Structure formats: structure tokens, C-alpha cells
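Q: Here's a chain of 358 amino acids. Please give me its 3D structure as C-alpha cells.
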Amino acid sequence: MEKEMIKFLCGLVLTAIVPLLLIRQLRKGAVFSGTKENQRNILYNISIISISVISAVNQNSEILMGTLIGCAIFQLLAICGVNKLNTVGNHKEGLSVNKSQYLIFCAILLLFLSADYLLRGKSVENILNQIDGGILIFLFFIYFYFTYWRRKDAERFIKTLKNVLSIRKNSLMKSRNLSKETAVSPASKKVLIEIIFYFLLAVIIIVGNCLLFEGTSKLGVELKISQYCIGLTLLTWSNNLLGILLESIEEKEDDRISEEELPEIEIDDGEALIEEAVEEEERNLENIIDGIIFSLTLVLGVIAVGKPVMIHIYMIYDLIVFGIISILFQFVSKIDSRLAGSGMATIYIGFIVYAFIR
């Protein structure tokens, strides 16, 4: 058991602590050009893809489904619940509400694709086959199209893109007249460095998830805990730890900056600050829903196309629970933030207890 625990701790350090330290240093050097939310999303997607592929390669559908379902429920209840506790007021019904409706549709469709016995009888095994995987992939690209291509600010995006291309074209034309020493612009070097560091972080996270998979899977056998519960808890929490740490550090930095700028803030700016906080919560909700849909459609779909995924009956029960949670998520905006946050966190704790008891 000592070896398994050492692997688990080493994997936890590689997937959370080491990337956290690197990112903090890179941000000080202004290497990363994207927003902090985009950085967290990229790292979370790398983590969820790597642990899913590792589980599929090792033919462990219990850890695969446990991690994907566990991350989805953890993000909706625990992460959103904590965000609601720290939010002033209720968020407006905007893009995240439309995305949550699509999330409900994804949950229901995934349930019917997984529960083959609902259509063919109890004697049939529940499997996500190649056709089911293709449907999930198609569902993701439909979501991607309607979310990012046909949104209201598409014209602004295209205009910005044209400006960037024109600037890039002008810089290329000017670079032809420069010497070889100045042929590579600082912006190009920055992008190249950013790509290299993202690749380095991806390698570190993948190695860490390999250690996490080996350690937790064997640890579950030693402790007589099902592989599904291991994915539902330890691997879920491990893959979300980096995002939680990054967000907590960012909040502390924002609070410190706000305290430094506090004397310059006028009383009339109070409503603007509250509105900005609500908009930030709205963006966080959108990012969470994006990550859930990405993992349950594209990631799971690609794995199912490569090799069918066995679905056990208790996974279907949890998919039903996930669908109910997705439906209830529609009404969160109509409830007081503190009450909604504490209720969501309590439901998550109850779900984990239920998963171990059954």
C-alpha cells in the first residue's frame, strides 16, 4: 500500500503543485497572453483528456466513467456552489442559461445512449458503441457551432480577426526589409514560448495522471473500494485541484489589488462593481458548462469510437442523478445565492455518501 500511496502523492504533485508553481512564474514574466479563465480551461481539458485516455487504454471503463461523471457533478455542485456562496446577488439569465439547457439535453441523450436495456430489454448489455460515440461527437460540434459561431458578437470577432490579420500582414511585409537578426518579432517568440510551456505542462500533467491512475486503482483494490468510486472521488478531486488552487490564488491577488485601489473608488461605482462580479460569475458558469459538455460528448465520444465502453447499471443511476441536477441547475438563478450555494454543496456531499453506501 505504501507504493500506491507514494504514486498517488507524486501524481498529485505533478498534476497540481508543479503546474501551479510554473504558471505563477510564467505569469510574472508575462509569458501567457490569454486570459486566466482560458488558461484554467486549457489545463483542465488537458487533464481530463489524459486521464480518460489512460483509463481507456487500460480498459478500465469504471474509472473512465467514474471520473467523467464525477467531474461533471463536482463542477456543477461543488465548484458552482462555492462560487454562489462568494457571489453578491443572483446572476442574470443569459448565455449560461441557454448552455445549461443544452447540458440537460446532453445528459438525457447520454442516458438513453448508455441504457440499451431501455430499448432492447434487460438481457442486453449496456454499451457505448461506435455509433453512440459518433452521435456524441456530432452533438459536440453542433454545440460548438451554435455557441461560438452564431453568437451575437460574431461580427465583432470577425472584425477583430481581420484587424489582427492586417496587422500581421503589415508586420510580415516590414520583416522582409529587416535583417536576419530582426527577422523574428518579439510577439512570435512569445507565442512560441507559450506553446512550448503548454506542451511542457501537458507532459507533466500526463505523467502525473499516469501515476495517479496506477496509484489509485491499486489503492482501491487494497482498501476494497470499487474502481468506479475511486474515479468518482480521488481522481475527480485530483483533476480539479489545479483549477481550484489557481482560482483561489487569483481571488487573493484580485482582493489585494482592490485594496490598493480602494481609495480611488467612488461610492457611485458600487453598482458597477456588483455588476462586474455578477458578470464574472456568469463567465465562470459558462466555462464550467463548456468543460462538462466537452468531456461528456467529445472526449467520451472519441473513446467510444475507438473502443466500446461498458456501462454498468450504477453508472446509469448516476447519469439519472446528473440529469436531475442539470434540470435543477436551471432554477439556481431564482434562489438566494447563499442558500443555493450551501444547498448545492450539501447535495454533493450526500451524493458521495450515497455512492459509497450503495
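Q: Can you summarize the key feature?
A: Residues 186-223 form the longest helix (38 residues).
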